[in-house]
């Protein structure tokens, strides 16, 4: 089997069900034929898994049954465990919904509806903040849409900023000086004016931390170190005017 090579693409939320096992994972490199699911749940090759692909406010849920074709174990920083699932044996209606989603994601005629996007990074590590700033500036250099990033090093500062202006995306580290990131996310989800905000939780690869942030209401959990280009493609995607509406029948 040819070695899988990732392409830069938006990161989707993937709700995975395999027998009695379930996981909220990330889906990357989506095509009409397959998807790579970043997950600690690793079904054997040949297993059939049920996936729900989505991203709040950008991709309405697409349900599909897929077959595991390749399994990858974690190979150190930046190379997470997961599996590639094929849609070749999926029902025709499911394949059509996936194909429609892929076409819409690749539609280069869609434009970001605003000339300025705002991101809030809640992170107390200065090195990570500096890397984020550099990567963000490089990714959006020369584009019509400007992206502004604000920083918060703790929960009180983040809460103040969230009530000062609107953010298109909030990126929250779990390990913060006072309260943890899951506490901030849970509070945000309970606030009517903030509940619909797109939230990505980040941290080192700790299963308990991942479960805590997702249970608190994070849309995605990404392990450090981050693949910035995929995160920024996701930012572009979730801020398009209107959600990607994939027919359900």
From TrEMBL:
Domain Response regulatory: 118-239
Listed name of the protein: Chemotaxis protein CheY
Keywords from the named record: Phosphoprotein
Organism, scientific name: Labilithrix luteola
Modification 4-aspartylphosphate, positions: 173
Any single biological process term in GO: phosphorelay signal transduction system
Origin superkingdom: Bacteria
